[in-house]
User: Fold this.
Amino acid sequence: MSAEVSADLSLAAVRLVPSQRWWQRVLRSRNLIIGATVLGMLVLVALLAPLISPSDPLAQDYSAATQPPSLAHPFGTDEFGRDILSRVIYGTRIDLQVGIISVISPFVVGILLGALAAYYGGWIDTLIMRLVDVVQGFPFIVLIVAIVAALGPGLTNMYIAVAIIAWVVYARLIRSEILVEKEKEYVTAARAVGGNDWRVILHHIVPNTITTCVVFAMADIALYILLAASLSFLGLGAQPPSPEWGAMITEGQNFMTTAWWMSALPGLAIIVTGVALSFLGDGLADILRPEWR
Amino acid sequence: MSRGRYILRRLSQMVPVLFGITLIIFLLLRLIPGDPAILLAGDHASDAAIAQVRHAYGLDRPIWVQYLYFMRNLFELNLGQSLSYHIPVASLIRQRLPVSLSVVVFTALITTVVSLPLGLLAALKKDSWLDNVVRSTLMITMVMPSFWIGIIFIIILSINFGLFPVSGYGTGFGDHVKHLFLPSLTISLSLAPILIRALRANVLETMRADYTRTARAKGLSEGKVVRTHVLRNALIPWVTLLGLSVGSLMGGTVITEKVFGLPGAGALMIDSITARDYPVVQASTLIFAFMVILVNLTTDIIYSFIDPRIRFG
Assistant:
């Protein structure tokens, strides 16, 4: 019922604003501009890390160990005298990569399996959705931790764990969208002109239903950065001396009484990235799904 | 369909899910490189001990028979022997579980107390400064790593101001509450945003509903409209969401227990990973999944009682 209503609304929204081109909507979405700008800057920081970071992220200098933020070291130094700002800058490379690499496989696999389930129904649907139920029976982080513990610590094994289980969310999302969409006339029309199932799914149904997943993926990238950080905290993610932000927070935990900056500042980097992704997600929702506003 | 049959059908849907969960747990151990018998008996076990484990778990038989052995042990509540604590895993988990459950209950309580008024106010005063402050704060708390919040809480509230204990569980009820407050608040901060957003959206939706317009049209005061019409209807799906969030809440305990040094089942799982105590890892993963399934089932059943409109279709 509510899904049908929202589908009608989307048609209404499209009809009401025919003169707005996509770039006009982009320029009018404050969320998108803020999110894209901050994220763009983070990407630049990641790409230019060797040029802009004040020193080597791994270079130790015991004469300058555990110093609070100063002009020489704006973010302070850690117990080995490493410059925390440089480590945070290099961490941008790792954490952005982690977020983006992690999301690709769940996104693609989830959409394909969800589309199959919704389009064919029957036993295919039952099988795929039961699998989704099973995976969602575990707390997400517990299952990830269990799989990474079995495979061994490290980011590569986190990617594998995420690929095994995180597709279920996308499968569920796209399935419920497609169940509504596949009854529409253009789908019948596409089939009537002789499109085979794959063509109808990939060229007609998925492009019309994928926007929810795209918006969700932005939040998901932030989630994977948090996950990588948490795994580092549990000793299962990036290993020292890697300047992964979560690993830095974890190292700083041992010095929290004397050197708050060691944990606090890398945490801020995670927050800035996460908030930028939230803005980007909301902004994409503004232009892709105007009926949500 | 009657409610009784609805519940029965819901229960029967659990069977394949439980089957799948046990299968995943069973296969997890086989993901680990090495002989499962040695993994289960411990790195330093004698040949006799390894042989005994091999026999008890049927590890010398085909893999599907091993799964049957695994299920038989499960039904007998025989979760194996902990390698580092040298006691049965079942009794180890029984000791640790109450701590985690207290965290879960306390967190649910804090989250509800915080989310209800904030979500309602944000919706009633839509686009006001309050709504904007709530929404932008949530955007930030949602992406804060929970262990980072925990560390910051400890630095500021426990170390600098001495308001809370730095770590541990304490003894006696009052002491437990004091020790559990910060961990629960930490998990709440990542859980509340979802619930506040959902409540705000629900309230806004019910405010636009026909029955709300009718209630206003027949001359009810705004307060009464909100209390008896809007809030009631907005809360029903919200309670379900709260129930379903318990899953991610339990995941949160794994990390928070480590930050605050709580002797719960989550911390037990992580410590056992470090200690390569695989029987405990296996069993605690299983317990977490069982609890999620149980809470989801209960939520569905409660939902069928509180929403008179539900059709058991």
